[in-house]
Amino acid sequence: MSGDIEHFIDNYTKGLIIDTRSSQVECNGYHTEQERLEALAGYRDQADDVDFATMCYDLGWVEPFDWVEWKETQEAVQLADDPEVLAKATSEQLQKLLTVMIRQDRFVEGSLASHFNSGFIDRIIDRVAVLAKGSGADT
């Protein structure tokens, strides 16, 4: 993990500044798409110190949209069921998946843990890591 990511995680664990009025994430100055990707990609190294759902909310990975309807779409089903499709997912698609899983856990307790246990969240983080390296736009 690069020094920038370590610096970000250190600052992240000390607290975030979230402007809820504009949904602009300001994490001690880290709020670009690249920084969001890198922070989530580095989650595994900080899993003991940082709650995954809280980190996703704080970094803007959980966004308001009609996730109940979207999770039934062909796009969502393919992303969830086909590892090859997930391996080509965009940041926006990953954001939708994370929103569905984290929001759904509020209604079905333990569903997020099930996604961790199945390895699905690890596969999402793997894809985020590829996007963070800038080599995953079309792969």
What fraction strand?
A: under 5%
Distance between the termini: 22 Å
Low-confidence parts, pLDDT < 50 over ≥5 residues? 10-30
Query: What gross morphology would you assign?
Result: globular
| Oligomeric description of these chains | single chain
Based on CA atoms alone, the radius of gyration comes out at: 14 Å
Count of folded domains: 1
The biggest beta sheet is recorded as: 2 strands, antiparallel
**Strand segment tally:** 2
**In sequence order, what are the helices and strands, one letter per element?**
HEEHHHHHHHHH
Please, how many helices? 10
What's the pLDDT, averaged over the residues? 79
> Strands of the biggest beta sheet: in what spatial order?
1-2
Derived from helix and strand composition plus strand pairing, the structural class reads: mainly alpha
Helix content estimate: 55-70%
